[in-house]
Amino acid sequence: MNGKQLDVIRLADDAMSVVILDQTKLPNHEEYLTLSEEKPMWDAIKLLQVRGAPAIGVFAGYAMAVLAKQETDLSYEAFKEAFDRQADYLNTSRPTAVNLSWALKRMKKFVEDHPEDPKTLADRLVQEAKTIDEENLAMNRKIAEYGVTLLHDGDGILTHCNAGYLACLGYGTATAPMYMAQEKGMHIHVYSDETRPLLQGARLTSFELYKAGVPVTSICDNMASLVMKQGKVQCVMVGCDRIAANGDFANKIGTSGVAILAKYYGIPFYTLGPSSTIDFNTPTGADIHIEMRDPEEIGSMWYKEPMILKEIDKFNPSFDVTDHSLLSGIVTERGIVYPPFDVNLKKLFNR
Ligand code: MRU
Which of 20, 47, 78, 239 is most exposed, with the fewest beta carbons within 10 Å of its own? Predict the structure, then answer.
């Protein structure tokens, strides 16, 4: 990929802390946080200092390894009890993206399957966290390879929120075909929705694409219909936080509106995500828990003065669910899944 990527998540050399890029400070400031305790780790996820479904999963693996390294004087039983409690605690930080609970479950299972001296076990947990990280990078590369086959030279691509390397590492997910198209010398142009209220599209997607040399235009959310009507968009690509067994999927608030617009204008609409985002235990989108966030993110967070009076009621769901009927396909590391999603997802993942 062109352009240098910022270090989103990095394990310290002694594995006693994990260093993250504070994404709340982008695009104007590049600041890093060094985390070694559970409460600041929980806060980092909750406050979106580290964010994006796959990146939260990778961070959770490293966070648990760092916590494990600090408890090597305990007996295995006491170590396991502390480990499980800390994992359950981190799991309460954000409910919608399944990658968080997926990674924590995997780390807990590793401890359960290895009843060993905690010193050795902690080192093996570091290795397991690195494996989660490496697997994620490899999955994103495969998503890039499959996703790029959906693009044509000259295409305009609209995306919502940030599902780039800042959210997923490596190629990202929704951005993966964009970066690969660029590597192949294809000409594409990306329209990046600002993504109210936390502006991940404006602050992060347009930032990372611009830095990588991918042509990008930042638009407000309410301009998506216009650019589609003007014929500037040939394809929509977005990430996902949880894909239900029937293909309904949760993604950043506003995604379902974009999907409805794409359907109206006859534009193919894809979600792209690794298998760690598919939750076969969630039958439909109606079963996905939608995170509610601080109302002041809408009212005052980005302004010098509040833009909505304090006493006025505000509604701030962080995600919405896009119905599978609006979806042209799901791009995963194993291939592209087409309708009927309930049948074809199971087939691809041998369920
Ligand atoms: O609240 P965020 O910034 O963590 O939400 C991110 C998104 O909704 C992304 O589109 C999603 O996680 C999919 S891929 C990173």
Answer: 78
Supply the mean pLDDT for the chain: 97
- Tell me what pLDDT residue 2 has: 56
241 part of the active site: yes
Ligand 1: nearest atom to the Cα of 54 = 15
Pocket of ligand 1 (CB under 6 A): 48, 51-54, 97, 161, 163, 167-168, 173, 200, 239-241, 251-252, 318
pTM above 0.90, yes or no: yes
Q: What residues contact residue 346 under an 8 Å CB cut-off, 6+ apart?
A: 245, 280
CA of 48 to the centre of ligand 1 (A): 10
Q: What is the distance between the alpha carbons of residues 305 and 302, in angstroms, rounded to a whole number?
A: 9
Residue with more model confidence, 246 or 98: 246
Contacts of 52 (CB under 8 A, 6+ apart): 162, 163, 166, 167, 168, 239
pLDDT > 90: percent of the chain: 97
Query: What is residue 342's three-state secondary structure?
Result: helix
Mean pLDDT (whole number) for 163-192: 98
CB neighbours of residue 95 within 10 Å: 18
Q: Catalytic residue among 133, 193, 221, 241, which?
A: 241
* Average of per-residue pLDDT across 93-118: 96
